[in-house]
Design brief:
This is Cationic amino acid transporter 1. InterPro entries: AA/rel_permease1, CAT_C. GO terms for molecular function: L-glutamate transmembrane transporter activity; L-lysine transmembrane transporter activity. The chain has a two-stranded antiparallel sheet. The protein has a single domain, classed as Up-down Bundle (Amino acid/polyamine transporter I), CATH 1.20.1740.10. By secondary structure, the chain is mainly α. The chain starts with a helix and ends in an 18-residue tail after the last helix. The chain contains 25 helices and two strands. Helix 6 packs across helix 12.
Length: 606
């Protein structure tokens, strides 16, 4: 068996990577549908049938876990709950708090920006609980992609994962450009000192940032070399960052004036929630920690402590920093670009701006590092299903890291960061994340209350009706909030519908599955509240972001219909035919066209 597996690994058309050989077409499109133009034409004609099947087909927990063998080598289990807490804080505490706090305090929320952070933090914490149960039960690198694939099917999972990857690339590019700005500030230069202006390029894309590219390259090397090494570096950066944050809080409160907290809500409740939708960017990144479940020693213990603990600490730190900033200066005078540095200048402590800049650099370095680790693991697991080329799923035997996925994702981040202005990047960040978090909460309800062969048709129909009412009432609430500035009557209708629909699940639909190791408390109320809050915050995001979101989703659909659908269909069908020797095909990552036990040899002419 071992020899046969080695042969499949090195010779199969579905193999991820062959030694002493350059990549060929079969490293990217090894499936039967792409063996010839005739096969591809036949596959395209079957697109409607295949699409219906993939939409209705759900994966299983065991299938997702077993898919790890498609990476040729397993990731090393080196992380514990302490690592995950620091990874969580490193992933989240970065550019958001140091850049967006001033912007939202001065333009949307005033001193009540602390409430905006609290609302976003509650939303993120509810999502953390949902992620935690999935990560414990399905400890693989795929994160939300794997969870959604198990409960909502391939199609929804692919669209969701594509948007998460976009969010990681855009978020990483935004942080890399912010890194350059704070680096210039640390050296006592203007924020745009190191940007190169090229007049021949379009506005917004004509200020090139070579330092952002260099930072991305260094982060990429670190992430490839070792996950544990990345964790140690994250320790150091995060500890320094926390020390600087403590300095800002203590020294800022020494220079505080309670008169600056009046008026507390100059922009009203609408400003608070509008700021919450934007400030959700400051919480983006914790989902990267869930992708590290595959490398965690004891997922049942470490993941709940790591994820929930890091989010509670982060939310507390954010709220205290927001209070400190608004006590140091009147909200009208807060600088939107470098709020804390300017605040210390205003109170006569100009020297403190260098400490703030150093702390911001350390924080953003951690965000980039954890983002590089997380986004590569998302792509790795997507490639294991062949929705993306299996070449991306290769895990290096020596480092135990997904080398190809890390290099490609960080290259994309560097390219976007090199050209694109920060303001353009920041507009699209929150919408993708809120969309994914809503889907994960929905998937958790499906997981608890629906199991094939267990749930009766009557209970299934009740669940579907209640879920549609929860989604519909949440969307109606968000739409009414966005369209009506002073109205309240519709809330008297939509909120009771949400409550009754959630109560309907609790009372009338029996749970079909109990968590084996760790479960989300207060089901269905907690995931239902997560759905409602995430959709409500989506309603506070500007129209242009939705247009960009729709454009990217359209691109994903084109790729899926022409490539991803057929590759994943062939892989699933081959797996169905070979259930008796599933482990063999998994180890070799082969896609056989004849149903034989061994994969066919690679066609050297391709």
């Amino acid at each position: 068996m071992g020899t046969g597996s080695d042969k499949v690994i090195t010779e199969s058309g579905g193999g991820i990577r062959r030694r002493n050989c350059f990549c060929t077409k079969d490293d990217f499109l090894p499936e039967e549908s792409f063996k010839s133009w005739g096969n591809y034409a036949k596959a395209l004609r079957q697109t409607p049938t295949r699409l219906i099947e993939r939409v209705l087909t759900r994966s299983g927990d065991e299938a997702e876990i077993e898919s790890k063998s498609r990476s040729q080598h397993e990731m090393k289990k080196t992380l514990n709950w302490w690592d995950l807490i620091w990874f969580g804080m490193g992933a989240v505490i970065g550019a958001g708090i140091f850049v967006l706090t001033g912007l939202e305090a001065s333009q949307d929320a005033g001193p009540a920006v602390v409430l905006s952070y609290a609302v976003s933090g509650v939303s993120a914490l509810l999502s953390v609980f949902c992620y935690t149960e999935f990560a414990v039960e399905i400890p693989v690198a795929g994160g939300s992609f794997a969870y959604l694939r198990v409960e909502l099917g391939d199609f929804v999972a692919f669209i969701a994962a594509g948007n998460i990857l976009l969010e990681y690339v855009i978020g990483g590019a935004a942080v890399a450009r912010s890194w350059t700005s704070y680096f210039a500030t640390l050296l006592n230069f203007r924020a745009d000192k190191f940007l190169i202006t090229v007049n021949g390029l379009a506005k917004g894309y004509n200020q090139l940032d070579p330092i952002a590219v260099g930072v991305c390259f260094i982060i990429c090397i670190i992430a490839i070399r070792s996950t544990k090494g990345s964790s140690r570096l994250n320790y150091v950066a995060s500890i320094i960052h926390i020390v600087v944050i403590i300095f800002i809080i203590i020294c800022g409160l020494i220079k505080s004036d309670t008169k600056n907290y009046t008026p507390f809500t100059p922009f009203g409740a609408r400003g608070i929630f509008k700021a919450s939708a934007v400030l959700f960017f400051a919480y983006v990144g914790f989902d990267a920690v869930s992708t590290m479940a595959e490398e965690t020693k004891d997922p049942a213990r470490d993941i709940p402590i790591g994820l929930v603990g890091s989010m509670v600490i982060t939310t507390t730190v954010y709220c205290i920093l927001a209070i400190t900033l608004c006590l140091m200066q009147p909200y009208q005078n807060i600088d939107p670009n470098a709020p804390f540095s300017v605040a210390f200048k205003a109170v006569g402590w100009s020297w403190a701006q260098y400490i703030v800049a150093a702390g911001a650099l350390k924080g953003m370095t951690s965000v980039l590092l954890v983002g590089a680790v997380g986004q590569a693991r998302y792509l790795t697991h997507i490639a294991r299903t062949h929705m993306m080329p299996p070449w991306f799923s290769y895990v290096d035997a020596k480092t135990g890291t997904p080398v190809n996925a890390t290099a490609v994702m960080m290259s994309a981040t560097a390219i976007v960061g090199f050209f694109t202005k920060l303001e353009i990047l920041s507009n699209l960040l929150s919408i993708s994340t809120l969309f994914i978090f809503m889907l994960v909460a929905l998937a958790l309800l499906v997981r608890r209350y629906y199991a094939s062969g267990v749930t009766t048709n009557a209970d299934r129909n009740k669940l579907i009706a209640c879920l549609l009412l929860i989604l519909g009432s949440s969307i109606a609430t968000a739409a009414y909030w966005g369209l009506s500035e002073n109205g309240w009557i519709a809330y008297c209708i939509t909120l009771p519908i949400w409550f009754m629909a959630t109560a309907g699940i609790y009372i009338f639909v029996p749970q079909a599955r109990n968590p084996k190791l760790w479960g989300v408390p207060l089901v269905p109320w907690l995931p239902s509240a997560s759905i409602a809050i995430n959709i409500f915050l989506l309603g506070s995001i500007d129209k242009d972001s939705f247009i960009r979101f729709a454009g990217w989703t359209g691109f994903l659909l084109v790729y899926y219909f022409f490539f991803g659908l057929h590759a994943s269909y062939d892989t699933a069908k081959e797996l169905e035919k070979s259930k008796g020797w599933k482990n063999n095909i998994e180890e070799g990552n082969a896609v056989s066209s004849n149903g034989l036990k061994h994969a066919p040899p690679v066609a050297s002419g391709n």
